[in-house]
Specification:
The complex is a heterodimer of chains A (329) and B (268). Chain A has 9 helices and 16 strands. Chain A starts with a strand and ends with a helix. The chains are: A alpha/beta (329), B alpha/beta (268). At the A-B interface, helix 4, strand 5, strand 7, strand 8 and strand 11 of A face strand 4, helix 1, helix 3, helix 4 and strand 9 of B.
């Protein structure tokens, strides 16, 4: 089976020269479909592709196709990808705003199947692919069986797979295949980029720990408690829809329906009752901790560890205890 | 300057996930109460705001296949859409997002060059596919600005839109015709007024078949996957509940519980 991975380069200055966070997680499910892979990415014309290719050799990637492109919104870029992917049976990538806009367009051009934000990919005896993803607001799982014969374009939810161990030591170099792309044709021009004000915390999608606050925190002035706990745990800060709608926190922090969907190893809900709209965004977290005054709050049905009590008094003590515990290790 | 322009908005009626009934961990969808996909509500609001700023612009609310619902399309008219249309066909039963995109593209071609903009929700709440917007743009060879939080006019033939990107919010200028997909927007949703509700009550919503759009079922459904099999989420062990009157009483228990669960995961 001709299996490729689409690897997104990081697009901010701080991570220049690296793959986008989590991009290499696509290698694990790809390697489960085929022991050797090819990869495709895009880099500006003046970039030396050698180090990029080198980083992939240990994962069994025989060739890295590099589309020379600084305008990933352009039709020319889509055409370049489309032409490179002729004959590919499966293309796997880690979901991101960019990747999730590219794959459906490629599915149209290649007459393929597309599933975005999958959590599991398995090949069947009959050569079909079973792709699993959470649906209905993450309330249940759907398995989509993709018939063989048309290419499968799949993006994976962040952290659904881990980056594989570098195992294939026989391969020392991935060959580079340069692919041209006509510049200057983009109908979309980026005017400005506003980085999220994250107080130096991790982004919601990256973090292994997410601490979110809700209306139970009483007012925007108390959200430093969320930030302090997030910092103590080395995580990111989130918020419920209620407090975003009330203007206490920015939309970028909203976890849930029409906000971010996160699946960290630890999710801490502070003063969040846990309406369905919030559950949509966090129910796939590995360990869920909830602190809420109302013992009947729906969040306690999801919580692995629930505390019935006032977040305003418990959280400062918890933050202190965690800082102490971490320092003593 | 006024000029003729149609803005299409795709609206899907999805099961209301706050009222779903579950059997063996799987929601019962037959007969479930439906609502307008929340992401599509922002697509409609974006279209209406652009229309408000453009004399001569009209907004058409479009329902496709099984997600098409006259009741919910009328709500769009009540909110300010000029007209609505249902693109329905027996051949669309059980089809996927790629089919919906193909049908919407056929409808845009059917209307011709007056269509300058199509707004769709970034994803539908039920299938969480996120496919229609970018696939539709690919069919039409139009640019797509995905995950928009706002859009306004830049010049007569271009929009300035703000989209969610990997590292924050990007403001872009996009030449029309184009497709926008919306997430939660920075502006509030409008509510219908009496005049709108009366107009909606009287509105006739025509139904167009694939035949009327000039496409065949094979063109639409050529490569869709099978109908998804729904299954319950993996079961989870029941949680523990810590109760106590003071932080001093609960925090030590909480820290211990965290340590036990997080140490094996490597985040303690």
């Amino acid at each position: 089976m001709a299996v490729w991975v689409l690897l997104e380069p990081a697009d901010n200055a701080a991570e220049a020269g690296q793959w986008a966070p989590g991009a290499l997680e696509a290698l694990m499910p790809a390697l489960s479909l085929s022991p050797t892979l090819e990869a495709i990415t895009w880099l500006p014309l003046d970039t030396d592709p050698a180090p990029w290719a080198e980083s992939l050799a240990p994962f069994g990637v025989s060739r890295l196709h590099v589309v020379s492109c600084t305008e990933p919104d352009s039709a020319a870029f889509l055409t370049a990808l489309h032409e490179a992917l002729g004959g590919v049976q499966a293309l796997l990538a880690v979901g991101s705003p960019r990747v999730n806009a590219l794959l459906p367009a490629l599915a149209v051009k290649l007459k393929g199947h597309v599933v975005l934000e999958a959590t599991q990919v398995v090949s069947t005896v009959g050569g079909e692919l079973d792709v699993v993803k959470p649906v209905m607001g993450d309330a249940c799982m759907a398995t989509l069986r993709l018939p063989a014969g048309a290419p499968a374009l799949l993006s994976l939810r962040r952290k659904a797979y881990r980056v594989p161990d570098a195992a294939n030591t026989d391969m020392t170099q991935s060959a580079v295949v340069q692919r041209p792309c006509t510049p200057g044709s983009s109908k979309i021009r980026v005017l400005s980029v506003a980085a999220q004000d994250d107080h130096g915390l991790l982004s919601l999608e990256e973090a292994d720990v997410v601490v979110s606050g809700g209306r139970g925190l009483k007012g925007p002035e108390n959200f430093h408690l969320v930030e302090d706990l997030a910092r103590a745990l080395g995580g990111a800060q989130g918020a419920s829809r209620a407090v975003v709608d009330a203007g206490w926190r920015p939309h970028a922090e909203q976890v849930g329906q029409t906000g971010k969907v996160v699946s960290p190893k630890l999710y801490v809900a502070l003063g969040i009752s846990g309406a369905i709209q919030h559950q949509v965004g966090m129910r796939n977290s590995t360990v869920i901790v909830a602190i809420n005054r109302d013992a009947d709050a729906p969040i306690f049905k999801l919580a692995d560890v629930g505390v019935v009590g006032d977040a305003l008094t418990i959280v400062p003590a918890l933050t202190q205890a965690i800082e102490a515990a971490r320092q003593s290790r | 300057m006024a000029y003729v322009m149609k803005i299409l908005v795709a609206l899907k009626a999805v099961p209301d996930n706050t009222r779903l009934r579950f059997e063996n961990g799987v929601p019962v969808l037959a007969g479930a109460e439906r609502m307008v996909n929340p992401y599509d509500e922002y697509a409609l609001e974006t279209a209406l705001r652009l229309k408000d700023a453009t004399p001569g612009a009209t907004v058409v609310a479009v329902g496709v296949g099984e997600g098409s619902s006259p009741e919910h399309l009328k709500k769009a008219i009540a909110a300010g859409a000029d007209e609505a249309v249902r693109l329905e066909d027996p051949a669309l039963v059980g089809t996927d997002s790629l089919a919906v995109a193909a049908v919407l593209a056929a409808y845009a071609r059917h209307l011709g060059e007056d269509v300058k903009l199509i707004c769709v929700g970034q994803q539908a709440l039920d299938t969480a596919a996120g496919v229609v917007g970018p696939a539709l743009a690919a069919h039409l060879d139009w640019p797509v600005v995905a995950r928009c939080q706002s859009a306004e006019w830049a010049v007569e033939t271009a929009l300035k839109a703000t989209r969610e990107a990997a590292h924050g919010l990007e403001t872009v200028e996009v030449q029309l015709p184009a497709v926008l997909t919306t997430v939660k927007c920075v502006y509030e949703l409008r509510t219908a007024n009496i005049k709108g509700v009366m107009r909606a009550n009287k509105a006739e919503i025509p139904v167009l078949s694939l035949d009327a759009l000039g496409i065949t079922a094979a063109q639409v459904n050529g490569h869709g996957p099978s109908t998804p099999q729904l299954s319950a989420r993996p079961p989870k062990a029941p949680g523990i509940l810590i109760q106590g009157d003071s932080p001093e009483a609960v925090v030590p228990q909480l820290v211990q519980a965290l340590q036990e669960r997080l140490s094996p995961l490597g985040v303690w």
